[in-house]
Amino acid sequence: MEQNSFFLPHEGVKLVELAQFLGAELGNSAHADVIIRSVSPIARAREGDICYILSRRNRDELLSCEASAVICDKALAALVPPHIPVVISSNPHAAFAMAGGYLYPAALKPVTFSSGESEIAPSAIVDPTARLEKGVIVEPMAIIGPGAEIGEGTRIGAQSIIGPNVKIGRNGSIATGVSILCALIGNGVIIHNGVRIGQDGFGYAPGPRGMIKIVQIGRVIIQDNVEIGANTTIDRGAMDDTVIGEGTKIDNQVQVGHNVRIGRHCAIVSQVGLAGSTIVGDGVQIGGQVGLKGHITIGDGVQIAAKSGVMTDLAAGGRYGGIPARPLNEYLKDVAQLMAKSGARGKKGDKND
């Protein structure tokens, strides 16, 4: 891919310095002064790029690789051609991710629209009762409501709305077109474009004249170092709080209903829907387009396959899939049996034609 103007390559770092940052080691100290400027997949790596491999399946791609370095496990180092420097890591995937952040720090947070490092844009509206610590940047046409508090080093993106009495911690990044109401947000939180936080949840009681709205008077609490993808919605609690645990990463277009409690260091992929009062443990991984019924509990460390429908509690540490979700090995057996039956019917039909 031709280098674009959105993310320019790094001015260059010595391979030994990058390896030290990654907590890795050089395969050959003679390569210490090799200069690295960018990251790349193996297939199109060029001089100045660093890439990584995870298995022997990359053997053929390595033969034509022109990278200036490859990150890999010690067991795979022999696969790398002798002319390419090797960086040895016990976790090459994580090391490569860290290298990308080192070389492209600006890409770790949403794009900004203000070149200043401590300013409030003239077109922004900041209520006089709002409290902003030093180093807060408020971009054009953003609105900060009465009683809001924003910590040092946080950036509020263009046209975003921070509602009354909302509290946002330090070194956060709120992208463009975000609305945050009735929320307490921790330090180092990244919120991408178009996210909606703190609107009322979906709650109604059937009555003789139709649906009667149930008031939603809870909050949203987002702990430190959470990242929330574009156009995700997180409803405030009805009478309790909606909580997103420390370090959890939520993809684009996820719906989090009222009173949902998500644990720490979870990964939730795009288009997942969590119905109200669902409880998700720590370290849970949820694949794309999974739907979770309300008022159920997902145990710590659970993994849920994409497009699953979760109707009941899931025990900690398990892997689940299907509709309804069940242990993954059972689901895969069911799919294999259905495919076998379908194939048998097809063959029988061919004979009759």
From TrEMBL:
**Active site, UniProt feature:** H258
Q: Name one GO molecular function term.
A: UDP-3-O-[(3R)-3-hydroxyacyl]-glucosamine N-acyltransferase activity
Carries keyword tRNA processing? Answer: no
Domain UDP-3-O-[3-hydroxymyristoyl] glucosamine N-acyltransferase non-repeat region per the UniProt entry, residue ranges: 33-99
Entry keyword set: Acyltransferase, Lipid A biosynthesis, Lipid biosynthesis, Lipid metabolism, Repeat, Transferase
So which domain of life are we looking at?
Bacteria
Fetch the InterPro entries from UniProt: Hexapep, Hexapep_transf_CS, LpxD, Trimer_LpxA-like_sf, UDP_GlcNAc_AcTrfase_non-rep
Q: Quote the PROSITE patterns the UniProt record gives.
A: HEXAPEP_TRANSFERASES
What reaction does this catalyse?
a UDP-3-O-[(3R)-3-hydroxyacyl]-alpha-D-glucosamine + a (3R)-hydroxyacyl-[ACP] = a UDP-2-N,3-O-bis[(3R)-3-hydroxyacyl]-alpha-D-glucosamine + holo-[ACP] + H(+)
Q: In which pathway does it act?
A: Bacterial outer membrane biogenesis; LPS lipid A biosynthesis
Keyword hit for Phosphoprotein: no
Under Enzyme Commission nomenclature, its number is 2.3.1.191
- Which family is this protein grouped under? Belongs to the transferase hexapeptide repeat family. LpxD subfamily.
Job of this protein: Catalyzes the N-acylation of UDP-3-O-acylglucosamine using 3-hydroxyacyl-ACP as the acyl donor. Is involved in the biosynthesis of lipid A, a phosphorylated glycolipid that anchors the lipopolysaccharide to the outer membrane of the cell.
Q: How does it assemble?
A: Homotrimer.
Q: What is this protein called?
A: UDP-3-O-acylglucosamine N-acyltransferase
Species of the source: Rhizobium mesosinicum
Organism lineage: Bacteria, Pseudomonadati, Pseudomonadota, Alphaproteobacteria, Hyphomicrobiales
